[in-house]
Each structure stands twice: as structure tokens, then as C-alpha cells.
Amino acid sequence: MTEDDARAFLLVRAVELQDGAEAVLTRDDRREATAAALAGGPAGDDAFLARRAEVLEERLLARFPAVRRATAAARWPGWLDWALPLAALALGAATSEIGGGKRLNIIAFPLLGMLAWNLTVYLSLGLGALRRAGGRGQGGNGFARLLGRWAEPLGRKLDAQQALGRALRRFAGDWLSATAALTYSRASRALHLSAAALAVGALLGMYLRALGVEYRAGWESTFVGAETLRGVLAVALGPASALTGVALPDAAGLERLRWSEGPGANAGPWIHLYAATAFLLIIGPRLVLAAWHAARAGRVRRTLPVGRADDGYARRLLRSASGEGAAVRVLPYSFRLPDRAADRLRQALGDALGAGTRTELEPSVAYGAEDERLATDGAGLGEADHLLALFNLSATPEAENQGAFVAGLRRLGEPRGAGVAALVDEAAFRRRLAGGDARLQARRAAWGTVLRPHGVEPVFVDLEEDEPAALVRALEDGLLRRPTATAA
């Protein structure tokens, strides 16, 4: 997807994956957006997902100011592309005094530090490229993390339990991950341009000052002799000498430039040599690197990797649009669901999720065998659109068993966008209930205490006695309510 399409898609995805009873986006909103996306425009999965997200994004922006701030924060601050280089140019010009007084020391030239720093940067970039080529590193930097921290507080301004607040935090993380390579290239482009501008500013300031002052070039050193200096300068300034035609003096000529031997010589040729060296080693390479990152950013922003087939959310939308229906895996924990209750559950799931819903009732997970079952069937479970853990209210809930089972389902399903919900059947408990509602409420509270730390709110139903409409409403709420961001 393009950058704008991907931003809208990830925002709407975050809201829909966190939305539940609060209905940040209503059922009518979603149905109308799907219809609008199917109504026209170019065919293709990405086009459908992008058009649908665009419709829903417009509604979110109109209703919630926090969403508008979040999308604004997620955009690359384009002013950095010109502000940083201009600031660097001004800084270089302001700090480019050639030396103390009117002297230019040719072995302590002000540009030498800048040259050394840039060569160190090139070495670091080369090592980083080798690590990435060997699969030991990723293209990312502090700018990407800064962008995530910039957007994150927008979600914290809302109540942590509100769907919109959770959605904005999830959007910040998803956007950071999806655009890490793009942000890296944009930041690198700005920094390379700034490094080139810093050197240009230093050269401009140097030449402007030299117009009104005659600088004299010479040298002095406690340890370096003329012969050694001649070899060093041949390496450092030899390419610039060949480019400009300005000859380097021999050892005898350098000896005459010692401050102890006289006033030195006019610094103009040396300024030209160091300026040419700066173009060869700083300005030219930095401009090439900036152009490369600009081209790479242009490619990446047109093909951000979102809405892929391994995204369960996108898969559900595409299935729904094609009429295929959702895939639901129901996993009873340590009890067998009676046939009548199983039929009612299948019917209610179809009514809640729409025509074409495919419900698969898995064999019961044995008490204490949840880890083994998740390890054995994990790959297949991750392909479902919804994972529904089914518990019996009569059982005593335990964090290390039922709680661990729900946590394991989240680890399997959420990376692929599968919804995870917990359904607690009260039928058997109600049949032998003695003591009235007090015991029922106490048992419900116990289940909530075990499952809520894992971010899942249990949905209580009676699969044998509840009215069909009430059962459908409960399932809609349970399947659309997403685990909270505070889950363990």
C-alpha cells in the first residue's frame, strides 16, 4: 500500500481490533464502508482494503479530535527536510574561522576534524551494511523510535480502558513497525544533506573571511618533521592536488613554511586544497547518499507491507467481501458440550458473524494439558479468524490452567490478527444452583479475576436456555471486544 493508504488502514485496523461495546465505529459504519469499497474503483485486495479504510478514517477524524492529532503525529515532519540542512549551513558559516589571528596551521586545519568525523561515519555505515547483509541487523534508527514516542501520549490522554485510547496506542506501535525502513531513509536523507550543508557553510565562511584578510599558511610541531609531513599531506591532499592542479611542496618547501623559519606563505592554495578535499570526501559522498536514501524512501512509501495475507484482520475483511465468511475455532476446556448446545452455538455464531461463517468445534482440551495442545495445534489455530475459548462455569478457574490457556491463545492468534474471546457456559451450574444469585455472581467474579489479567473479559451465556437473540448479542459483544493492551 502507499503511505497514505497504509496509515488509514492501520488506524482503522487498530480501532476495529480494540473496539467492542463502546462502538467507536458502529456496525452501520463498517457495513457502509464495505459497501462503498465494493461499489467502484480498481479491483484488487489492497485497493478494497484501502478504500474501506479511507471511508472509516474520515468518520473517525470527524468524530474524535484525538484521532486527528494521532494521524498528524504519524506523518513525517517534512520541515526537517529543509530546516536541518539550513541550520547546518548557517552553523558551518558561523563557526568556520580559519585559525587564531591570521595564521593557518596546515597540520591543524579546522576542516580536519570534520573530515575525520565523516570518514568515521562512512566506516560505521559500511559496517552496518555488512551486518544487514549477513542478517544481523535491521535498517532503523532513533527517529523511528522518536516517532512512536511522539504518537504514544495521544492514547494515554484517554482512559486506559477506553477502546479509542487502546486503539491509538496500538496504531502508534503498528505504524512505527510498518514505517521503520521508510523513516530510516527519510532521516538518513535529512542527515546526509545536513552534513553536506555544514561543510558547504564552513567553506563559504572561510572564503568570505579570506576576502578581507590575508591568511598566512605555515606549521609547527614538536614531533613531526618535514619529511613525515610531506607523506601525510600526499595521502590527505593528494587527490585534491591532482584535481585542482595545486602542487604540494616538497620537504624543503615545507621546511621553509615552519613558523620558526618565517611568516609562512599566502594560504590561498592551501584553502583551495582543503576545500577540494572537503568536496571529495564530504560534500560529494553525502549528496550521493542523500540521493540514494531519497530514491529508496520514494520506493518504500509506495509499497508499505500492510494488509498482507498473514494479517488475520485483512483476511477476515477479504473473506467477508467475497462472501466466504469468517472461520471460527471453538475450543472447549475440560468439558464436553452437549449436542443441542453445540448446535445453538453454531447457529448463534452464524447470526453474529454473518452468512458463510464456518465454525469448527475442537475436541475438548484436557485439564492441565493446555500447553501441549497449544504446541501441537498452534499453527492451525493461528489461521482462524476467531479463537473462542469455551469454559464451564461449574469449574473452579485457576490462573495456571484456564488463565494460561487464554494467554496462550492470545500469543498464537494476535500476531496474525485473530480475535480471541472467552465464553463461559452457565447451563450446568444453573441446573444445580442452590443459594440464588449470590453464588452465581461469586463464580462469575472468580472467572473475571482469572481471565482479566490476560486482557480477556469473559462473556457469560447459558447455551441451553438463553433466547437466541440474547445469545447472538452476547457473542457479538464477546467476539468484537478485543483483549486490552494491559494484558500480561
Put the structure in a nutshell.
The protein is of the alpha/beta class.
Give a written overview of the molecule.
It is built from 19 helices and 8 strands. Among the domains are: 80-211 and 264-302, no CATH class; 312-480, Toll/interleukin-1 receptor homology (TIR) domain (Rossmann fold), CATH 3.40.50. The protein has 488 residues and is an alpha/beta fold. The longest helix is centred in the middle third of the chain and has 35 residues, at 268-302. α9 (180-212) packs antiparallel against α12 and α14 crosses α19.
Our count of helices gives 19
The biggest sheet amounts to: 5 strands, parallel
Distance between the termini: 32 Å
> Strand sequence of the main sheet, in spatial order?
5-4-6-7-8
Q: What's the average pLDDT?
A: 83
Overall number of strands? 8
Radius of gyration: 33 Å
Itemize the secondary structure elements and their pairings.
Blueprint: H1 3-18, H2 27-39, H3 45-63, H4 65-74, H5 80-94, E1 103-105, H6 111-133, H7 142-156, H8 163-178, H9 180-212, E2 216-218, H10 226-244, H11 251-256, E3 265-266, H12 268-302, H13 312-322, E4 327-332, H14 339-353, E5 358-361, H15 370-381, E6 386-392, H16 399-413, E7 419-425, H17 427-431, H18 437-451, E8 459-461, H19 468-480
Parallel strand pairs: 1-2, 4-5, 4-6, 6-7, 7-8
Antiparallel strand pairs: 2-3
